[in-house]
Amino acid sequence: MNLLRTRIIAGLAFLLLPVAGIGMAGAARAEVPEPATTEPAPPEPAPIEPVPAEQAAPSPAALYAEGAYAEAVAAALALGDAHGDAGMDALAARALLAQARLAPRGERAGLVGRALEAARRAVARDPQHLEGNLQLALALGYQGRAMGNLAAHQRGLAEEARAAIDTALAVAPDNPWAQALLGSWHVEIVTGAGPLLAATLYGASLDEGLKAFRAAEAHPEVSLLVLHQMALHLLSYDSRSFARQAERMLMAARARDAGTHFERHMARQADRLLRALRSGSHAMLAREIERERLTF
Predict the structure, then answer these.
(1) Which residue ranges make up each domain of the chain?
(2) For the region Disordered, what residue ranges are annotated (predicted)?
(3) What is the pTM of this model?
């Protein structure tokens, strides 16, 4: 948030009064004094009034919350460069990923690429920055899904994402975002590569993913975004076997606050997924899962 600095200039005016002299001539005769005159005092300078809060430039976080993502990115990157602030770079990455989620399909790859750059810059400034590592793992996951399993494997995206998740967990072991990302890492790889190849190439397993999901779900501050994404991963893996767990997560997402523009959007997506799950139509649910996964 930009700091509002207010200089208050106090003006000190001095009142100059002429002295009235009395002269003596001869016996006790006194001269009649001339009438005293008072020069007007200079006006005091008006103090500089502080700029009202409502007229101050909104912070990058406020811009993000209201859905002004492009403006939030520009403001956050400017502050990050000016102050070497990893938190501002991480916020820019978050805003870019939200923007990508809502953008036309042809624009998403470019936005995700910019988010990845911002997240990597945040981690370069501060390797232990929690939000920077979380956003890096998210951006890598979105990029890997977009480019396909083989290309992602060849570029080492899964290993880089896992390193970012491990760093986040080392900094904040109970963080629900970090736990959910660890679970997503396991489940996504098993979904894409199958259990045997996932275990052989990456050491990923469904059991470890479910364990991390349970830890995230049990956290009292788990957000609706986390709950929705965990439900989506479980339904993508096996919508029949994990229907009850996914329904529980989506119901919990309904009860969470949606304070930002992006949270309100994702709350609507969670409701759509829940309705499809409860429809009893496997085809309808499959279409909704595919629609969600094609967002990136």
Answers:
(1) 61-173, 175-216, 223-296
(2) 31-57
(3) 0.81
H/E element, 63: helix 60-65
Per-residue tens of pLDDT for the chain, all 296 residues: 333 333 322 333 323 333 333 333 333 333 444 445 555 555 565 565 555 545 678 999 999 999 999 999 999 999 999 999 999 999 999 999 999 999 999 999 999 999 999 999 999 999 999 999 999 999 999 999 888 888 998 999 999 999 999 999 999 999 999 999 999 999 999 999 999 999 999 999 999 999 999 999 999 999 999 999 999 999 999 999 999 999 999 999 999 999 999 999 999 999 999 999 999 999 999 999 999 987 75
Residues 61-173, CATH architecture: Alpha Horseshoe (1.25)
**CA end-to-end span of the chain:** 31
